Amino acid sequence: MRCPFCGELESQVKDSRPSEDGAAIRRRRLCPSCGGRFTTFERVQLRELTILKRSGRRTPFERDKLVRSIAVATRKRPVDAERVERLINGIVRQLESMGETELASSVVGEMVMKALKSLDDVAYVRYASVYRDFKQTEDFAQFLSDEGLSEDSLAEDAEP
Predict the structure, then answer these.
(1) Are residues 61 and 79 in the same domain?
(2) What is the mean pLDDT of each run of 10 residues along the chain (160 residues)?
(3) Model confidence, pTM
(4) How many structural domains does the chain have?
């Protein structure tokens, strides 16, 4: 494994243990060149997934991109990091078990929205605002009424 600090191609595994309810292996590594320590995770990947974008472009599925988008939606929300990790693992397992190697980005987006709705209403609306590309406040109001959410309940929920 390449060292993220100095770029050395070799590193030593100092510790390995199961992680994410046994769905991954966490490895602590040491770079013999610079002495840097870092952690890697090894996960099972059932198949290579390709995402078909709205524009028609095809890109490989990136778990890290999913993690980042959910992290943005849940930022500063009272959501347990372990629940978020389970949510992400569940989405990835669902995608891999669909039997398709090519999935429309809309399938992934709708799956994330459904999962976030069960996790946190504010995170759900944040994600939806980007995913559905809201342009005006009326777009938010329409979305909230369609989903049976009120602006007042979201405002109360958003307060620390």
Answers:
(1) yes
(2) 93 91 88 96 80 93 94 94 91 88 92 93 88 76 75 57
(3) 0.66
(4) 2
